[in-house]
Amino acid sequence: MPGFLVRLLPYALAFSSSLCIMIIELVSSRLVARHVGSSLTVWTSVIGIILGGICLGNVLGGRLADRVDPRKAVGPLFAIGALLTLSTLWVNAKLDLLIPRPDALNWELRTILVVTLDFLIPATVLGMIGPVVAKMAVEQARRAGSAIGDVYFVGAIGSIVGTFICGFYLMYYLSTSTIVLVVAAAISLLAAGLMSAIMARLAAAATAACLALASIPGIVDKLELGGLDLGSYKLNGLALVGNGLACVLGLFGVAGLLTARRAPEDSAGKSPAKNEPAAGEARPGLADLAVLAFVASLVFMSLEMVAGRLVQRHLGSSIYGWTSVIGILLAGLSLGNFLGGKIADFIKKESQASWLFLAASVLILGVIFLETQPPWLRDVFLGGDSPSVLSHAITMTAIKIPAFLHLPWQSIPLTWPFRILVVTTIVFFLPALTLGTVSPVVAKLAVDRLKRHHRTGTAIGQVYAWGMVGSILGTFLTGFFLIDVLGTKGVILILATVMGFGATLLGSVWHALWAGIPLGLCVIAFTPITTIEKIGLSWGVREEAGDPTKADADYSWIDESNYYYIKVNNETEQGGEITRRTLVLDNLIHGYFILDHPERLDYDYEHIYALVAYRAARASGKVTFKPAAEEPAPTKLPRQPFAPPAAARPAGEKTGLKSVAAAEQDAPKGDAGAKPSPPAPAKPQRPPAESKPAPPAQAKPAPNDAAGPPKPAKDVPGKPDANIPPTVRGDIPLMRDEEEEEQRGSSLPNAQESKMTTLFLGGGAYCFQRHMQKAYPGTAVDVAEIDPAVTRANHKATGLPMDTPIKTYWGDARQFVELNQNSKQYDLVFGDAFNDFSVPWHLTTREFNEKIKKMMSPNGVYMINIIDVYLSDQEAEKRANRKIASGKVEDPAKKASLRELELAEAHRYGGFVGAWTKTAKETWDHIYIFGTDDDPGSGLRETFVVVASMKPLDLADLGARPDDPKFYHRRRRVEPKPYGPYDLEQVDARSRGIILTDDYAPVENLLAPVAETRAND
């Protein structure tokens, strides 16, 4: 038994070290966000720098393994690793003292510097463990290839487990700093079992115990030991003791490495081994094998970056997307490592590896035909539905079990994270598997070459290192350059071609037959000839091109940047009299603009923005209004047409507050706040818990009103319908047709001159920005937009002039706020960066709110739009009563159970709007919530507008006063009312008590149930 445990040890250590590294990698993006935001640049830097550290660690670890007994080196490495893991918290807290001011350094370089200072050294030390444990495995194995492959395999399994545990669970239940403490405790515990000196073991055990206990809030609260504030996180007393012990443990680790020199072997009396190198024999080189490892790893990491972009393109950017991409590619890599190790035992020369390169080329090319299937393939496999397998996550509510299996269940329900996981597996697992077979083969060939020279560790370390160099280059080259220049499809074609040529160079002329296929597709994809372009489009290997000069073109602009796949849809209305341009980023509508009509607003949440902005402008004293006698008559704006019936509606177009059945690639659509398209009579569907329409809205009783809800009031001639919810009820009678609405018109404020300053977090289609300058002449508008390509699309296709007075600052919005929080002040700040698929969590936290507050004038107002679902307890009770009545349930216990289930379902939703509102209350004195649903709390997916200010706002009779701007929704004048006490209390209850901070902001987890409701569209 002890012998079995000794043989198992290298694999257990490889698993553990890889698990810890991957948790640190995912957490690192959260740690550095307070300094550099959260964007593709940050993810690229995190992945690249940590891979760089692992690469350097592989080189050093390989050399260490040849100079030190591996069993004596592993314990000290874990001891030092525990200390360095904790150091990330200290360094991150003091980075502002270590790096230049934000305005003194290019932001990309600043990001790389921040990540390097935080994580390079910890990643290097943890990366040294890989070659050391691989050397342990090779020394005790009969087959070097299998041993190396198995170490790769279990290491990758550890990475997968760490990825999913952290991304799907730890980040929801624990704060970022607590996760770091837990990882450091685990590493310390490993050191306790591996160190040889008794004092070192005691120090390691004490460190692990203190850090583990410091991660349990109940124990920390009872001890009341205080702590140390490190900015966005606080280390409690136990954690500080654990950090102190970790310093002692680190010293033991360094001492252990210095004293762990391998004892020289006594060769006296022994005859020379037969396989010893002859005197003066030169040591073989590894250059050719290093190239193979370099290329395979470069292609793998390029594929990972492309996979991240493609998942974001269809399913939004979130921790679930990156977790699925990293986890699935690692899963493919791990199984490939395992199979590659078995294959390596039968490979004696490099040419035999050609078939591995060929298989990888074939499967990489297959990614294109799963991401964008040609029509003929789509008809065969997907029944003509969306051409991308990835977008099927939206409607994949369950996995159906084939009937022939005769299982007791017919399907496996899937929550939103697992939907993303399933489609990511289908598209990317097999290419990752084939790429994973290369490294063990190359490593085994390297070991065979240097084994006679007693340089096994060096051989493994060099192959590891060159593979990591390829990974680093693939990460930065693809993330910073290739996607922007070639697009995701272009990068995939290049990767397939590279692997195809690799197979040809290693193999024979027969491999060239395949290599010609991806090469030919590259020609079709990149050649600017009309005929070839049409072929490329029909085969799905190139993107469509938009033309802003053609009124009948489907698209006015198409582009792909490092951040988005950008489309500008082209639509004409009123017989071609006006043109609507809709900006779509990654299949989510981010705004629209009616050419030459900046005054027009169609989205209901924009109406709330405009009405609140008017009241704020009145209160600011910075807007000069015309005297009443000079007020213009209502402006006759372009007619705001109603959407056609669903059968005739363009694919993916939205009505009211939700998207209609989303066909083709524009599903799901919504803006940065999931904006619906112009108003339509149809009401959206409800979440899965209830498919029946709710009865007409009624006034809500107090929660403990025993008398029950009041009866609907009868219509009174000449007065508003009492059954119309107060959020949309106005004093204007129902207009009978569109012509009457057009005659009624809308009106702009009677502003003459404005000195207001406004900030928009997100550019979108620059619709509301242009509206503000039209409505309030002279208003200064600043925009923080992450992607220059979005602004370029607006210049090209939505009529934004090149000399526009709107000033755009490119970069993450948090970067802009960080740079200008002490120098700029704004009267109105608009947050327009959230939807249910992609939420930049670092713009939701208390720390960010405090920075925004510093940028606001004394009368300043901050407005954001949030997409969420709010189902009140009262509505849940009604649903339960309807089910009880329809099912004729008499048993009191079953009735109570049904009510509990409906209440539990209601509390699944509203987490994000509740948590954000609760967080905002810690910064601003006055918070107002507006819904865009007709009936607050009815359980529709809707866009909320949350208004925050330090001074109370005059929001009474909003939209109803004679001088208020006039907007119409469903043929009624918009008169929104903020939520009252009952709904505010209900929304607060949905927050789960969460305060969003830089250290803890589980926004993806809060919004996962909302994303699932898109399956009902």
Evaluate the radius of gyration: 31 Å
Care to count the β-strands?
Answer: 21
Shape: globular
What percentage of residues falls in helices of 4 or more residues? 40-55%
Figure out the total of helices: 31
> Order of strands across the widest beta sheet?
15-14-13-16-17-19-18
Biggest sheet details: 7 strands, mixed
End-to-end CA span: 58 Å
Residue windows where pLDDT falls under 50 for at least 5 positions: 263-274, 640-744
Structural class: alpha+beta
What portion of residues belong to β-strands? 5-15%
| Mean pLDDT across residues | 80
What would a concise description of this structure say?
With 1017 residues, this protein is of the alpha+beta class.
How would you sum up this structure, described in words?
By secondary structure, the protein is of the alpha+beta class. Helices cover 52% and strands 11% of the residues. The chain contains 31 helices and 21 strands. The protein has a 7-stranded mixed β-sheet, sandwiched between helices. A hairpin with a 4-residue loop joins β5 and β6. The longest helix is centred in the middle third of the chain and has 51 residues, at 456-506. The chain is globular and about 95 Å long. The model is unreliable at 263-274 and 640-744 (pLDDT under 50).
